[in-house]
Design goal:
Elements (H helix, E strand, L loop, with lengths): L1 E6 L6 E4 L4 H13 L4 E5 L5 E5 L3 E6 L13
Antiparallel strand pairs: 1-2, 1-5, 3-4
Length: about 80
């Protein structure tokens, strides 16, 4: 699933591909925005962790789960 995170005072958004479920990501975002956690912590498909200060999150956009593409097709 593709996740886009807008960060306040930053012109570019953070984009990552995650293997986490939409419910898990939504739960982590809710915890961070409610103040239960000071960091929004997500993990991408390669195992890298993305940490964003919760008070700097402007928005989080969750994309649809994507099927893994195989081959050299254009679409």
């Amino acid at each position: 699933m593709e996740i886009k995170i807008g960060v306040q005072h930053t012109p570019r958004e953070i984009v990552l591909e995650s293997g986490q479920s939409a419910e898990e990501v939504e739960s982590r975002v809710s915890d961070a925005l409610s103040g239960a956690s000071k960091l929004l912590t997500l993990t991408d498909v390669n195992g890298r962790r993305v940490l964003v200060p919760a008070d700097r999150v402007a928005y989080v956009e969750l994309g649809r789960p994507t099927a893994r593409r195989v081959g050299f097709g254009a679409g």
